[in-house]
Design goal:
The model has no long low-confidence stretch (mean pLDDT 79). Helix 1 runs antiparallel to helix 2, helix 7 crosses helix 8 and helix 7 crosses helix 10. This protein has a two-stranded parallel sheet with strand order 1-4. A two-stranded antiparallel sheet has the order 2-3. The protein folds into three domains: 28 residues, no CATH class; 88 residues, no CATH class; 94 residues, no CATH class. It has eleven helices and eight strands. The protein is mainly α.
């Protein structure tokens, strides 16, 4: 019993995060808690190195299995049917809480795109087209572009919140009279390890430089999305 709350000691483990972590031992009552190399937090698998490759592989495997079930159970392969099933049963798993665990390396990005490539192959009548042409025909965009757009939407939401609502304090804002473009600016800060540059609060700083004042001051989410529809795709090659 701890503060009136009962814990199942068999379900309590310690996850030590970071290279310099000393790995302290913790006790619950009289029992010593065991360490764990990876744990789930709200359904997201997190390991001690904050490397999301394992999570990406698991989700790619799960969604590929779902696509296999769709392929063997659906006889009508029209665009409307396949896209509806893909949007409802497959893509949500690839985008759930993705700001936290987005693929960090090209290998992970490729694994996710392979899932979407499998999905578009289920639609008849697209043979002979390139991948980009098939996506335009289906009204889709690459998952990497969708993650970029989603990052900017979440960032805008955080920075527009009032003080005390949570989110804005994750970023360091600086205001300078001589800066070009957007004001205020986001300050990235320094980090010792490359793994940190993949954190949401770090990777979106570079994207913010392409935000115009008009986009930042968008009065509603629909207006913001309309602006991003042009920005994300016009500057896609630059932002990469």
């Amino acid at each position: 019993m701890t503060y009136g709350i009962k814990f199942d000691k068999l379900k309590c483990q310690i996850l030590h995060v970071g290279q310099s972590n000393t790995g302290h031992k913790y006790e619950l009552g009289e029992d010593l808690l065991e360490g764990s190399p990876a744990e789930r937090d709200l359904g997201v698998l997190v390991d001690s190195w904050l490397n999301m490759s394992q999570r990406c592989a698991l989700e790619a495997k799960r969604t590929s299995h779902t696509l296999g079930c769709i392929k063997h159970s659906i006889t009508r392969r029209s665009k409307e049917v396949i896209i509806s099933l893909y949007s409802a049963l497959v893509r949500p798993y690839l985008e759930y809480c993705v700001q936290f665990w987005a693929p960090q390396f090209k290998k992970g990005v490729k694994v996710f795109e392979c899932v979407q490539r499998r999905a578009r192959k289920l639609v008849k009548g697209l043979e002979g087209m390139s991948y980009e042409e098939q996506l335009r025909t289906l009204g889709l965009s690459s998952l990497e572009k969708r993650r970029l757009r989603g990052d900017l939407i979440v960032l805008h939401s955080f920075l527009r919140r009032r003080q005390g609502e949570g989110g804005a304090e994750l970023f360091c804002l600086i205001s300078q009279d001589r800066t070009r473009g957007n004001d205020p600016k986001l300050h990235q800060g320094r980090f010792r390890f490359d793994i940190r540059k993949y954190f949401f609060t770090k990777k979106v700083v570079r994207l913010w430089t392409w935000f115009s004042r008009e986009v930042f001051n968008a009065p509603s989410l629909s207006v913001l999305k309309r602006h991003l529809g042009t920005i994300c795709f016009n500057f896609w090659s630059v932002l990469k």
